[in-house]
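Input record, target 12 of the design panel.
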């Protein structure tokens, strides 16, 4: 039987994590654990102001404090930020980012108690992760006697109703039925997470050859347009490949993922969104560690939509000559991007077929 915790009467908790999309979503098992352990507690979440919508869409917090680091985190504006953070007294602040800015924000909040996320000293090149990032976030509660997740490790993200309607309207305009397309998210901000253009072009050709009844939707942000141009999709001359890169907002993308037959994604924030909405998922990994930041297992699914029938499939080259992995650098130390280039198109198409058969 679980004994009493040192802080049994918490009324207000501040959670701090600046970003990015995937990191914010991987805090949701922690947020659900807070809800389970302290029912009725008020949870505020401080993050980068540009990502406040992601935290709102988890449905797990009472308040999002979006902070613009460029304009609000200066010597002249700190008093105003301090007042924003102290609108309510916090019994506990959870600092989930091991950097000075985050630690300082926890102190500035005036919380009665501050807990900092632990580092994994064993994690690094040639040393695999001992626990997932989501588990590491939950480990911040160790001093309070919480030893693990109280509601699983799946992620939480619920697109707004109008986003779900926009997704259906877009599918109607394209003439593509729900569940009859593969959604492909090929972009990534770091070059060592981007799959080569020729690999992706070969994959699109093979997908359409093996599954002629399925359409393909290519999605991504405005920053992915240049990469898409290198793919030269027009040369495939296939009317069932629809290019939507740079035209669809994040919540509508999430809704399209939830309605897809399968989603194929590189290691990016949208990959975690696909996992959160229970899309059948194939995820491509290069330098980073799937054991650390891979897609989460299936959750309960969105209301009114089918739940993925199997957990996400993660693909990563299994060569043993890349001692530099896992690596969280944006630039490849080897200079050849071998870790992501070695993931073969046929392996990917086989994995998509496996999700489709599930």
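The sequence produced for target 12 reads:
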């Amino acid at each position: 039987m679980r004994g009493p915790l040192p802080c049994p009467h918490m009324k207000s908790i501040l959670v701090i994590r600046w970003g990015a999309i995937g990191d914010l979503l991987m805090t949701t098992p922690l947020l659900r654990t807070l809800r389970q352990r302290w029912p009725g507690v008020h949870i505020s979440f401080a993050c980068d102001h540009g990502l406040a919508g992601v935290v709102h869409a988890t449905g797990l917090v009472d308040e999002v404090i979006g902070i613009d680091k460029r304009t609000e985190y200066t010597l002249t504006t700190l008093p105003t930020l301090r007042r924003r953070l102290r609108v309510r007294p916090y019994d506990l602040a959870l600092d989930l980012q091991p950097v000075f800015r985050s630690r300082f924000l926890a102190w500035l909040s005036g919380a009665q108690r501050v807990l900092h996320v632990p580092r994994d000293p064993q994690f690094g090149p040639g040393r695999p992760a001992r626990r997932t990032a989501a588990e590491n976030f939950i480990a911040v509660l160790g001093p309070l006697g919480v030893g693990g997740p109280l509601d699983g490790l799946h992620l939480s993200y619920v697109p707004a109703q109008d986003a779900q309607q926009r997704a259906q309207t877009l599918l109607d305009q394209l003439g593509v039925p729900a569940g009859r397309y593969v959604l492909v998210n090929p972009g990534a901000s770091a070059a060592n997470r981007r799959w080569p253009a020729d690999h992706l072009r070969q994959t699109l050709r093979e997908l359409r050859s093996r599954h002629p009844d399925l359409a393909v939707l290519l999605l991504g942000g405005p920053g992915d347009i240049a990469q898409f141009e290198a793919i030269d999709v027009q040369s495939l001359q296939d009317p069932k490949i629809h290019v939507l890169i740079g035209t669809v907002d994040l919540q509508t993308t999430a809704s399209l993922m939830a309605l897809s037959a399968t989603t194929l994604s590189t290691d990016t924030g949208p990959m975690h969104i696909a996992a959160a909405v229970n899309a059948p998922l194939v995820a491509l990994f290069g330098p980073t560690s799937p054991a650390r930041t891979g897609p989460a297992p299936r959750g309960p699914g969105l209301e009114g939509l089918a739940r993925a029938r199997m957990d996400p499939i993660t693909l990563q080259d299994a060569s043993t000559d890349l001692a530099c992995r896992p690596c969280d650098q944006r630039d490849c130390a080897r200079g050849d991007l071998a870790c992501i280039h070695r993931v073969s198109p046929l392996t990917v198409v086989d994995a998509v077929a496996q999700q489709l058969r599930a």
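The chain is about 35% helix and 15% strand.
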